[in-house]
Design goal:
Two copies of one chain form a homodimer.
Chain A (H helix, E strand, L loop, with lengths): L24 H8 L3 H8 L7 H13 L6 H8 L4 E6 L4 H15 L5 E6 L7 H12 L3 E4 L7 H9 L4 E5 L9 E4 L1 H15 L4 E5 L5 H15 L10 E3 L4 H12 L7 E4 L2 H13 L9 E3 L5 H5 L6 E3 L2 H16 L9 E2 L2 E3 L11
Parallel strand pairs in A: 1-2, 1-3, 3-4, 4-5, 5-11, 6-7, 6-8, 8-9
Antiparallel strand pairs in A: 10-12
Helix pairs in contact in A: 1-2, 1-3, 5-13, 6-7, 8-9, 10-11
Chain B binds a DNA duplex through α2 and α4.
Chain lengths: ~350, ~350
DNA sequence: ACGGCTTAGGAAACCGGTGTCATAGCTATT
DNA sequence: AATAGCTATGACACCGGTTTCCTAAGCCGT
């Protein structure tokens, strides 16, 4: 045996008809009676091609169902048709919706989404990202929070001259390369909802201080309350880890404290569900004794009893927009799209007027 | 401006230092004083290379942190370093865990995971898959259920001479190209658990008949019951859609029927949560009046009250194994790994002895 | 000393596209 | 008329690897 041969490579003589094997740009060129360079120009929408010629070539391409080889283009263009998703969000719901949105936009294009989970706790995560970019030369990288908030990562990508889009809840240095979420606005809606129900003594359990979204949501909540002349008491704000367990722990502590609020705004649904558990432990009924608002509108919010009032961020739409922005960057349209997406409060059964109004 | 030029292509004279721009196989060859073909042989572990030469070249590669360009190899080898995940499972939890498992295995390799959601209801889904495979030439495709159960898809991949691994709960035609899940075994455990608690009148809500897993789980449940001399009554088995809503609907119907079971085994957790909702509607307490068992061990199972007894399949492990199998296939090791993974029953608070024992 | 076999390595074509540069045919300007 | 400038196209090298084919050296038996 010579070098190990592929499993079913039958050594098909490529001569003979133009069938037998994939058709290439050479085939199209021959069929159209032009050079491959002209076909290449048509492929890339180069302006200097006669309209007649262009139509003729396009027709032939369609007739033969020709699609250029992305690998070859990648090699020649020194840029692949791969877009990386660099993420570290622990919520499956979030990740999957983001993926769906991106894939929505890529549908019908030649672009593919490749996954690159980032573990920012690992010392070599920057090296791994660098290797990924250097070797696979993705056309771009999409970063949802909290990867998007990491300046070291953004610096690296800039150094590597790699397009990227950051999805974040605040304005970040590099303009025009981000999709804006309005976490603060959503949190403000939660505040207004609770305040207008008559709550005045409210607690807040927020995510880790290292996440910008934690701050955004908290300050948005405060702003919303301020409209009603209410201020958030520091002794009623707790930091947790955006997880069920930490949310439950914080709520247990909170509910066994000296001051008992009539409502709790949790920084995400996971923690809100943790609050449910703590409320059960404390013998409190929801929403009778305690109103609860979450953030994210995970599927669980609708399924749990009582249904959780929460804030929905259009994650899928944001993914779609981010993908669109990457495509525009790749095509050199540096349009300052910088879109932002409005959150929406979903009112279910976990919020009601406080008892002693 | 001529054709849009790459951002930083300064026409760097490649002579001079070996820095300035990525280093290629030619650089390594020059530095080692051999031809590029010899370097290529080292890269591919070709046997006919002198041990001295090989070591020398490898050393140089490490020193200069050389990594061959995947795009170029893809072009030459007519095979990329991309592995596709063709999936249609609606559960984010499932999808994310599968992705994690696969990525676990790819870590440290040059392989990347690209997503290819499949909508088998769309008339062109086969065309889209074909286009993906033909144009990107993935090294392989991993298919979890229920895509894995689609023979048309498997036929297509075989026709395209594309490696694939199917993850499925039953033996499928092509041997040695699958990872086996044991849904039936898990369902049998659920049956034994309920039967040994003393239940004798049990209902089953299963997934769509078009999913093999529905049948596997049902027949496994029946086998488990049979060990206790119990048989599943046909009038107490319902088909639903693996979703919360359909599960709730089936349970409502079931609980308002003439025969009231003391336990319900739902084909997945989503439907089991739907049963919770129906039980609340019917004023039944869980597990006092009704025991419930689910399947999947989604995060929700642990968070809902009362905690849902359910069957856990090691999805992440299965993903890892599938990725491993793909790698073996690519490397020509046609080892009949055909591994299978044991399910595990997680007992929480939704199951108890029936009231009137 | 010669042919045959095995081992080690190189030259050049190739994978399927793209960039650079040259060129032919026009029209517009001087 | 000659020059300049634009349009439309092609020849050819190139991207960074792999493959095919070939050569040269070393060892063996006769």
């Amino acid at each position: 045996m010579t070098e190990p041969s592929g499993p079913a490579s039958k050594k098909t003589v490529p001569v003979k008809g133009d069938e037998r094997g994939r058709i290439t740009i050479n085939d199209i060129a021959r069929l159209a009676g032009v050079s491959k360079k002209t076909v290449s120009r048509v492929l890339n929408d180069h302006p200097l091609v006669n309209e007649e010629t262009r139509k003729h070539i396009k027709l032939i391409m369609v007739e033969h169902d020709y699609h250029p080889d992305p690998q070859a283009r990648a090699l020649a263009l020194r840029r692949s048709f791969l877009v990386g998703l660099a993420y570290d969000n622990p919520s499956p719901q979030y990740v999957v919706n983001m993926q769906r949105g991106i894939l929505d936009r890529f549908e019908g294009t030649d672009y593919q989404l490749v996954l690159h989970p980032v573990d920012r706790a690992a010392p070599d995560h920057l090296t791994r990202l660098r290797r990924f970019v250097e070797s696979h030369r993705p056309s771009g990288i999409i970063m949802p929070p909290s990867v998007s908030e990491d300046e070291a990562i953004a610096d690296l990508l800039r150094e590597l001259d790699c397009h990227y889009i950051r999805i974040a809840s605040l304005d970040l240095d590099t303009p025009q390369v981000m999709v804006r979420t309005h976490d603060a606005m959503g949190a403000a809606q939660a505040a207004r909802h609770l305040a207008s129900l008559g709550h005045t003594l409210m607690a807040h359990i927020h995510g880790p201080n290292s996440f910008r979204s934690s701050h955004e949501r908290m300050s948005g909540f405060q702003e919303g309350l301020a409209e009603f002349g209410i201020s958030l008491r520091p002794d009623l704000t707790f930091e947790a880890g955006y997880t069920y367990e930490t949310g439950a722990r914080a709520a247990n502590q909170l509910l066994s404290g000296p001051v008992r609020p009539t409502a709790i705004f949790a920084g995400n649904d996971e923690m809100a569900i943790g609050v449910y558990s703590a409320a059960r432990n404390a013998g409190l009924s929801i929403p009778g004794d305690l109103s609860i608002v979450g953030f994210d509108d995970t599927p669980m919010a609708a399924r749990i009893a009582p249904g959780l009032t929460t804030v929905r961020l259009p994650i899928r739409d944001m993914g779609r927009e981010a993908a669109d922005a990457i495509l525009k960057l790749v095509n050199g349209q540096n349009s300052p799209s910088n879109k932002s997406f409005q959150p929406e409060i979903i009112i279910r059964d976990s919020t009601a007027r406080p008892k002693q109004v």
